[in-house]
Amino acid sequence: MATIHVQLIGDTAMLPHNELERLVELARRSEEIELRMREEDVPTWSLMRLAEQSCAFDFWKEEGEDIYSLQDGEPI
């Protein structure tokens, strides 16, 4: 049995290159396949959506005492 690790960003699946090659090799054993690949950076909207869904920045939504003041910035 082969284990495939896939990360989803929105509706796009991302997996390590060596695992993709293994999937292609297994698929070709049963039938002829055509592989179409795009090599590009992850689109900005995908990264934004991933950050939004991860809840990593939810602390910004919480109301409460301000953490920083104007005096915390760098002197001009």
Explained architecture:
The chain is mostly helical and 76 residues long. It has one domain. The chain is 33% helix and 8% strand. It has helices at residues 17-30, 44-54, and strands spanning 7-9, 12-14. The chain has a two-stranded antiparallel ribbon. A hairpin with a 2-residue loop joins strand 1 (7-9) and strand 2 (12-14).
Q: What sort of overall outline do the alpha carbons produce when their principal axes are compared?
A: elongated
The end-to-end distance, rounded to whole angstroms, is: 62 Å
Q: Oligomer, anyone?
A: single chain
> What is the total domain count?
1
- Structural class label: mainly alpha
Radius of gyration: 21 Å
Write down the overall mean pLDDT: 76
Strand order of the largest sheet: 1-2
Summarize this structure briefly.
With 76 residues, the protein is mainly α. Helix content is 33%, strand content 8%. The protein has one domain (7-61).
What descriptive keywords fit this protein?
76 residues, mainly alpha, two-stranded antiparallel sheet, elongated
Task: Summarize the topology.
Layout: E1 7-9, E2 12-14, H1 17-30, H2 44-54
Antiparallel strand pairs: 1-2
